Design the sequence.
């Protein structure tokens, strides 16, 4: 089991920045991949950014060049630095952990944190 606790959401004006944090209940070395997803009202949840235990990261096209995912292994924490925010970034952001055990991939989710970008 992996518990994830998120923080850092809030209200910001367009062009501003926020940093989201997600702390895992176990060492992230034991987690195959961690990432951030978002879900806007009336839309499906979508991947924003993810990083593997090997350090490979990927980003959704709308956030490339503006968002950066990073980890602090000592704190079991993954961050999402969001710069140049746009109103279309408004959504609930969820932290995700993927852990492969005995050939089965398990997904764990945080409670979500609201990000609102005003124009």
Sequence:
């Amino acid at each position: 089991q992996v518990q994830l606790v998120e923080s850092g959401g809030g209200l910001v004006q367009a062009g501003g920045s926020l940093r989201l944090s997600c702390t895992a209940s176990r060492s992230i070395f034991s987690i195959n991949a961690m990432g951030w997803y978002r879900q806007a009202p009336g839309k499906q949840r979508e991947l924003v950014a993810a990083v593997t235990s090997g350090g490979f990261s990927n980003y959704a096209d709308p956030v490339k060049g503006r968002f950066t995912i990073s980890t602090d292994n000592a704190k079991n924490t993954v961050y999402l630095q969001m710069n140049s925010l746009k109103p279309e970034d408004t959504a609930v952001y969820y932290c995700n952990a993927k852990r492969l055990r005995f050939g089965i991939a398990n997904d764990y989710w945080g409670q979500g944190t609201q990000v609102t970008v005003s124009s």
User: Anything to note?
Assistant: The mean pLDDT is 95. The longest strand covers residues 91-101.
